[in-house]
Design goal:
The complex is a heterodimer of chains A (357) and B (140). Chain A is an alpha/beta fold. Chain A is 24% helix and 18% strand. Helix content of chain B is 52%, strand content 4%. Classes of the chains: A alpha/beta (357), B mainly alpha (140). Chains A and B meet through loops of A and loops of B.
Chain lengths: 357, 140
């Protein structure tokens, strides 16, 4: 399909609409016991809309979100809903959130929001709650229980007693490699809420948790990490089909811990290096992850993207939509009980751009 | 004859003296102390720190984007692989060329002169964050 897409692009040179065109040809192989209950949802994340001044915003990041929205609008059959995975803004400013919402308003379909640290640490989520979404909540859709967490909280002392101004706090958290940063956490209050929320759900009900940070521990210095991840994992343990989908990392990641499957989503703004490429420290990228291709900086949308998620078995299959790269699909392999890339999982099928150093 | 002999002796003595002078000068240059090492390292690290600050600032471009937004801890800059063939440009380039490419494109700024102290600082920070990694010029 990708060769066709490239050939089509070359032949027409019509850009964005042409590049998204083949998505409308995707037919999802629904095959559950009750096909009428099968559905997909779209997932767009990490737009990092950044104000320069006044009505000027960083063109590159704007274009990422605009492109994702336009491509997602061509998806057929239509997803039942969309998720936005957090970091709509770069520095949590009203102007950035408003501009991001304006772009998102072109998306056809219902959108629900997960908050990221870039949306939160200026006003601690006030504007977000007023205009966009609660910080954490749950909902049910066609037999699946969905939970949205605010996983980017941290120690009260860091949040309330460390910084001379809200913008200093925001800038400190916005710097990914900040040695004065602080680890993300869900916090006991929200964990108590989650316990109560899940108590009323049957254990054979598929549960999907959306968070901004990984609810697993990969690399603390960049907050590819949630400090109290184990507490959330423990609450998900009784469920036969539990999945966590997270943003923040701007890259393909997937993992399996016990019964819980993890998938990361792409950013529309820019890619981040895999932590193992920082040669001074060790990190724990899940071994089963086949990395995305190394980014080509000369094509500014490379190694960014968005995804749609097929829920036919109650275990999500994530379809990564990757500009200028072959699209990727990571399904849940019922034989091994782990997620796998349908094309590249076998080590012998990997390609040179998937080697990061 | 006797005069000539005298002249030769004087010349030899002169050469010998010069030799001693050169020897003593060079041994002075080689003879550095722990304090020297400390000071030289401090000089280097102060430039690394300047580079670290620049790398995380909005001062290099015009759109408030900073290098670390894509390169936390200068990761994915691969300084050990330069000079290398940059296939998108069709020629072999140095790390400075690539730094300027980033300043001009994602940061929408003006390229730095190659002898600009800011360029030296950026290269110092980028390579310091990659210390210990073997040189691999040309690697992709």
């Amino acid at each position: 399909m990708n060769m066709n897409r490239r050939a089509f692009l070359k032949a027409t040179g019509t850009g964005l609409m042409a590049s998204a065109f083949p998505i409308s040809l995707v037919k999802l192989a629904f095959g559950g016991q009750d096909p009428s209950q099968d559905f997909t949802f779209g997932y767009i994340s990490d737009a990092h809309i950044q104000q320069i001044k006044g009505t000027q915003f960083v063109r590159n990041w704007d274009m990422g979100l605009i492109r994702a929205v336009q491509e997602a609008n061509l998806l057929t059959p239509r997803p039942d809903f969309f998720m936005f995975g957090g970091d709509l803004a770069q520095l949590g400013k009203k102007e950035e959130l408003d501009h991001g919402l304006e772009i998102m308003s072109n998306l056809r379909g219902k959108v629900r929001y997960v908050i990221g640290e870039h949306d939160y640490y200026l006003d601690l989520g006030k504007y977000w709650q007023d205009k966009i979404s609660p910080l954490y909540y749950s909902f049910d859709h066609k037999g699946v229980h969905f939970v949205v967490l605010n996983s980017i909280l941290t120690y009260d002392k860091w949040t309330h007693e460390t910084w001379p101004s809200p913008m200093d706090r925001m800038l400190a958290m916005a710097r990914l490699d900040n040695p004065k940063g602080s680890p993300f956490m869900v916090g006991d209050q929200q964990i108590a809420w989650l316990k109560k929320d899940l108590a009323k759900i049957n254990q054979d009900t598929p549960v999907v948790v959306f968070s901004h940070s990984p609810i697993q521990k990969i690399f603390k210095p960049w907050n590819f990490w949630t400090q109290d991840a184990e507490k959330v994992q423990a609450l998900l343990k009784p469920f036969e089909k539990a999945t966590v989908i997270y943003g923040h990392v701007h890259q393909v990641q997937y993992n399996q811990i016990g019964n819980i499957t993890f998938h990361a989503v792409m950013a529309t703004a820019w890619p981040w290096p895999y932590p193992e490429t920082y040669s001074q420290l060790t990190s724990c990228l899940p071994k089963i992850t086949v990395p995305m291709n190394r980014a080509d900086p000369f094509f500014e949308r490379d190694a960014t993207g968005w995804q749609f998620v097929d829920m036919k078995s109650g275990k999500p299959a994530v379809h990564y939509q990757l500009p200028d790269n072959p699209n990727r699909t990571v399904i849940f392999d019922t034989v091994t009980g782990k997620p796998k890339d349908v094309k590249y999982q076998d080590y012998n099928r990997r390609i040179p751009p998937q080697t990061h150093f | 004859m006797g005069k000539n002999k005298c002249l030769l002796s004087a010349c030899l003595a002169g050469l010998l003296g010069l030799g001693f002078l050169v020897f003593s000068l060079s041994s002075q240059a080689d003879d550095f102390t722990e304090n020297d090492l400390k000071r030289w390292n401090q000089e280097f690290m102060s430039v690394v720190m300047k580079g670290e600050k620049l790398f995380h600032s909005a001062d290099l471009g015009t759109n408030k984007v900073s290098c670390d937004q894509c390169h936390p801890n200068a990761a994915n800059t691969h300084p050990e692989t330069y000079p290398k063939f940059q296939q998108q440009l069709g020629r072999v380039i140095t790390l400075s060329d690539m730094v300027n490419w980033c300043i001009q494109n994602p940061l929408e700024g003006e390229p730095l002169p190659l002898d600009d102290a800011r360029m030296t600082a950026l290269l110092s920070y980028i390579t310091f964050e990659r210390r210990g990694v073997s040189l691999a010029p040309g690697k992709h």
